[in-house]
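Handoff note, outgoing to incoming analyst
You'll be picking up this chain. Sequence as last confirmed:
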Amino acid sequence: MTYQPREFWQERLARQFDLRGSGETGLSMEYNHACYALRAEVLTRALRECDFDPRGREVLDVGCGTGFFTAYYLGRGARVTGIDIAPVSIETLRARHPEARFLLADVGEREIPLPQEGRFALVNAMDVLYHITDDARWEAAVRHLAGAVADQGLLVVSDAFSEMDRLAGHNRMRPLVRYRTLLNAAGLQLAGLHPTHVLLNRDLGPLRFLNRAPAMLLAADRMLLALGFGRGPNTNKILIARRVKSG
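Most recent structure output, in case you need it:
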């Protein structure tokens, strides 16, 4: 069956509105919690390196899904607008976080109902853009999100940033050069590339039995990342891009 993003994510999140629905559906909640906890730790360090404090700032959480990063930024005092393709995400998060704003939209469409361009101090698109498998829609999404970033603001994107084979039908990774070309044209410059996982969040092949010990994998990944591992072509990373001040 052809991948239909809205239908796919609506059905998936309606069935499992938790970290398994937005993460690894076939693995435990403990495993998914470890993956997301490590993403959050890496993101926190990356934002600190960019001297960015979310408190009191406007943040756009793209593909807000089950709300992990919405809660992350709200917990740090940001004013959050969430956007997602799945109605169940928007409906549930509106009830869960009445202090935030949520919009139902597909960021790959030619026009999307975002507030005025350049409004957001940070645009967050974690584990989102590689789920846009059509090239034209992916390029449109990158341009939309880049355009929403304010002067000196940040765009946060996760991907492997390399061509990868044998992916699921709803995944398509793009190389770093394609991101940089679009972002540079939109006035954003690369400010950092931070690996998020080494053993977690990947196919371990014959060692996949280790997925039953997520706490051990989390501890190992923390150590491996501290030692500089995770920069290979098959691991996910967080890209930080900053808008160059206009004028």
